[in-house]
Design brief:
This is GNAT family N-acetyltransferase. The chain is an alpha+beta fold. The chain is built from four helices and five strands. The chain has a single domain, classed as Aminopeptidase (3-Layer(aba) Sandwich), CATH 3.40.630. It has a five-stranded mixed β-sheet with strand order 1-2-3-4-5, sandwiched between helices. It is globular.
Length: 146
């Protein structure tokens, strides 16, 4: 049996609700109302975009990204979120979706695609470096404000 794979940009609240279970695997601290609120705010304030890959009408992988302009990187894409549903990993879906983000970036005049990944996510690091050709370019530092 042949699987139907397709991708689409997520835009409506209904579509966000549909992909929430996949995003929850990457962002377990977000309940659905918080996810909907933050996704809407990011879209309105930063032009956040989300692409989803579907397998037979079921979302299996997500990529959330923004186009940015900085003095350091010029015009580029920053990937905020990239996740493939745990039971669908190692099928090439993450590669397909991140490649789609890269193509979007090229079409919109971006010089690079950047992302950060938690230090504990060793499998993700291996994917980015070995399968996608990304290089470790820096450390990300964070300070939580009280």
């Amino acid at each position: 049996m042949m699987l139907l794979l397709y991708q689409k940009e997520i835009q409506s609240e209904t579509e966000l609700r549909e992909v929430y279970p996949v995003m929850k695997q990457l962002r377990p601290h977000l309940d659905e109302p918080a996810f909907l609120e933050l996704a809407d705010k990011a879209k309105k304030t930063e032009n956040y975009r989300m692409l989803a890959l579907y397998e037979d009408a079921v979302p299996v992988s997500l990529a959330g990204f923004v186009q940015r302009v900085t003095l350091n990187q010029g015009v580029h894409v920053w990937v905020d979120d990239l996740v493939t549903c745990e039971k669908h990993r190692s099928k090439g879906y993450g590669k397909k979706l991140l490649s789609a983000v890269e193509e979007w970036a090229k079409q919109h005049g971006c010089r690079t695609v950047e992302l950060s990944s938690g230090t504990q996510r060793r499998e993700a690091h291996r994917f980015y470096e070995e399968k996608m050709g990304y290089e470790k370019a820096s450390y990300l530092y964070r300070k939580h404000l009280k």
